[in-house]
Amino acid sequence: MDKPIIQPRFKDSPHFRNFWEKGNGKQLIDFSGAEVSFNNFDQFSPYFYHVDEMGDQVVKDVYLAKKFHEASREIEGYIRNGVSEADNVPESVKKLFTQTQKIPDWLDYNLLKNGAELCMRSNLDSLISLRDYCLMGGYDYAYLNKPLVATEALKKGAVKRLSETLDFWVNATRYDALELHAKGYEFAIKTRLIHSYARLSIKKYYKEWDTESWGEPINSWDMMATYIGFSLVFLHSLQKLGNTFSAEEEEGIFHLWKYVGYLLGIPEQLLPDNKKQATEYFYLWTSVQPPSDKDSILLAHSLLNESLENPILKFKFERKNLRYLHICCTWFLLDDEVCKRLEIPDVSAKNLFPKTKMVINKVYDKFVSREARIKKGNKDQMKVLEDYLRITKNSNFH
């Protein structure tokens, strides 16, 4: 069957125009110097129906051919020890590991280091950005969320989902994390295979999947948008919260996520090198995404209420206060229109906390050395991750 030809179907819709003409999209254009147009639309749109076939074949040959724990142990062995041409392993495994073990010519370890340092240096602002801008803002794109709905992610709960995202992000953004066989490399390969496993399950069991409208489940174009969230949107959020970053750190963030994307099997031509490219790519992708629907609202509220469900904080008043602070940051970082669509509750004095944060960041920037901030940021982020892992591993958060 021929793949459908896709058009920028929402380019004249109010949600698209408002975002790019007066909302965060306009800010991204100003921030990046992007020149947005639909000239390259046909170059990118086929990726709406493109998937990581290499990863899918490994899942068929390993995970679907054995007991799950046996397959997982086997894959872990390949990740830790590597795979060579001489090894007696399925052809698909050879292909995937030949790709991930080949260091691309463009990889620059110094840039990876700069990107990791910015992630650590920005401390809890990094985590606020990921949660209240990147993740929450992503819920406004209705088709992007369909795989989460199809795999019943809501039943799993936001605490577990957040814990997994945090685990992946922290482990991909430390020093030397993406060296072959290191922790970040391991997370990238495992995440890639989880995506393939989910995609094959959706295609087999979820009969309502609408490929023409929604694209293939977890398609390459949606993957590009997700990783632009970790780079472009993340940077924009840090800037909004009063953080500054050098040209090397900025370049480093894009480089780091380009390499993670490469390990995840995203085609290289979809992985931007800088904020100008990222904004131009993102513009095209948003033109095929409708605004929030009822599933988006459920996902957004599940994330908002995570603070109330999460037992990391002992007392109810602390949890309610944390939820309030996340609501304040969400209103501050996202467009009002998006917050209204996602039905984010309106709260009093909502700009007070983010604006105080901006002032503190400017002072902190002036008086605390970069090295001290990297060290403290790493320590604080690791502590948050440990708390989440403790809660999700030792409780009923399935």
Automatic annotation (TrEMBL):
<dbReference type="Pfam" id="PF09995">
    <property type="entry name" value="MPAB_Lcp_cat"/>
</dbReference>
<protein>
    <recommendedName>
        <fullName>ER-bound oxygenase mpaB/mpaB'/Rubber oxygenase catalytic domain-containing protein</fullName>
    </recommendedName>
</protein>
<feature type="domain" description="ER-bound oxygenase mpaB/mpaB'/Rubber oxygenase catalytic">
    <location>
        <begin position="147"/>
        <end position="349"/>
    </location>
</feature>
<dbReference type="InterPro" id="IPR037473">
    <property type="entry name" value="Lcp-like"/>
</dbReference>
<dbReference type="InterPro" id="IPR018713">
    <property type="entry name" value="MPAB/Lcp_cat_dom"/>
</dbReference>
<dbReference type="GO" id="GO:0016491">
    <property type="term" value="F:oxidoreductase activity"/>
</dbReference>
